[in-house]
Amino acid sequence: MKLVTKMVLLASLSAVTSLSQAACSFDVEVGDYLRFSATEMTVEKSCDSVTVNLKHTGKLPAKIMGHNWVLTKDTDVKSVASKGMGAGLAANYVPQDDNRVIAYSSVIGGGGTTSVTFSTKDLSVGGKYIYFCSFPGHSYGMRGTLNVKA
Ligand code: CU
To answer: How much distance in Å is there from the Cα of 150 to the middle of ligand 1?
Structure first.
């Protein structure tokens, strides 16, 4: 049973990988644990905008095991995550009117889905970007790299 689960997980991971070839839309899953189903995505600058669809397959509520998807430059992750904690759940644990936040989604709990669409105009080819979950305590382990290619 465990092996089957693992194989399904691998299959969904490779689906994410192949989706990243299209590079304008991504499906990412989260659950009652601290990781994203994809730890890397590659965006093409030729996309006018990028959409990330986030799905929480767990059961725990947002106030206990909420997750979101926040994008910043790699150098801004720590500070934005720290400031986001103080913003609270109602603000999706994201500092408001902070231009270091390139994009962010709502915080969702088990069974929830959300999506965020953002322009690629502020992304530089070859720039270093990190997406992470800004729920308190999650950003250290729950993150991935976003690459931008021409
Ligand atoms: Cu989280």
So the answer is: 30
**Predicted local confidence at residue 94, as pLDDT:** 98
Distance from C-alpha of 124 to C-alpha of 120, rounded to nearest angstrom: 8
133 C-alpha vs ligand 1 centroid, how far in Å?
5
Give the list of residues 6+ apart from residue 125 with CB closer than 8 angstroms, or none: 45, 148, 149, 150
| C-alpha–C-alpha distance, residues 150 and 134, integer Å | 28
**Residue 104 in 3-state DSSP?**
strand
Q: How far is the CA of 64 from the centre of ligand 1 (A)?
A: 10
Distance 142 CA to ligand 1 centre (A): 6
135 closest CA partner among 86, 101, 71, 98: 86
Backbone angles phi, psi at 96, to 5 degrees: -80, 145
* pLDDT confidence bin for 23, thresholds 50/70/90: confident
